[in-house]
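Reviewer comment 2.1 asked that we show a complete input and output for one of the modelled complexes. We chose the oxalic acid case, as it is the one discussed in the main text.
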Amino acid sequence: MSTILLAISGWEPEAWLERFRAEAKGRAVRLWPDADPAAIDYACVWKQPAGVLAKLPKLKAIFSLGAGVDHLLADPALPDVPIARIVDADLTGRMTGHVALHVLLHQRKMKLYEAQRRERLWRDLGEAPAEDVRVGILGMGTLGRAAAALLRQLGFKVAGFSHSPKVIADIESFAGEAAMDAFLGRSDILVCLLPLTAETRGILRYDLFRRLARDGALGGPVLINAGRGGLQVEADILRALDDGTLVAASLDVFEQEPLPKASPFWDHPKVYVTPHNAASSDPKALVKNVINQIERFERGLPLENLVDRKRGY
Ligand code: NDP
Ligand code: OXD
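Response of the prediction step:
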């Protein structure tokens, strides 16, 4: 029987260990560093300590316990075995909910209603109808496409930007750098669901914010970033919020996590802060997904949701 290694940092590993042991169907499950490296067949990781995977001589495959793989690919000593990531209805549903929630918070002026509540003020401020609000989704992969579909159902005008064009009913598709200006120029709310790669690092910066629509129903552009903190230049977001280039932001991810106590985002009146939980990985849902993948692999079938190392996602 095969042996699975869990190499996890930044999350509590116990719930994963318990769940893997319950679901592994006879396979041994070890938690790094309590493992014999020579016995490991599969590694399931979240921010594994650098170099750990290179020490496993019979490793056959690596599984990211999240959808993103930047944490994994950052390891300079990655062995040459297939890498798969999570694509799962539970995680996708969580992200879809997060994006819809934050789009609605901005469209429905919740910051203003919170301020009114503190003043015990009963006043209907009205709102722009959803069909007058143009949402632009940067990154039309598994999560971007699911969020786009729900926002469309809610009545928003939705467009997506990705490397390759997408054909999706009622959702405008923009692809490639040449289409970026047109995409940004029609977006009142920019939702970022890009992976962090060499190409996308720092993409959410002042000159990009300046290219967003300024004639929209929300009085100026809004940024929602649930991709990665490394995608955003935080000094530029603060500058843009201060000078009106952005009117508001929802940030789930940050350059440094946990967000330092001294960060100005914590009490910024135009910002919603969440602790990188837009789509948390839940062992109850996701361990099954990984075990299914291992079963496929052991039956000689190809792994699903493989990562392209060169592309970085
Ligand atoms: P996918 O790999 O399915 O999608 C990535 C999308 O980004 C694709 O549409 C791809 O284009 C596009 N893309 C990548 N690079 C570029 C680029 N340089 N220019 C334009 N488009 C680009 O990923 P997921 O949708 O599953 O996840 C997206 C990210 O969400 C993850 O990588 C992770 O960082 C983040 N995430 C955050 C979570 C949180 O809790 N905050 C939870 C889960 C994920 P194409 O389709 O053409 O290849
Ligand atoms: C992920 C995450 O990539 O939780 O899944 O950030």
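Residues 92 and 143 are 6 Å apart (CA to CA). We note this here for comparison with the apo prediction described in Section 3.2.
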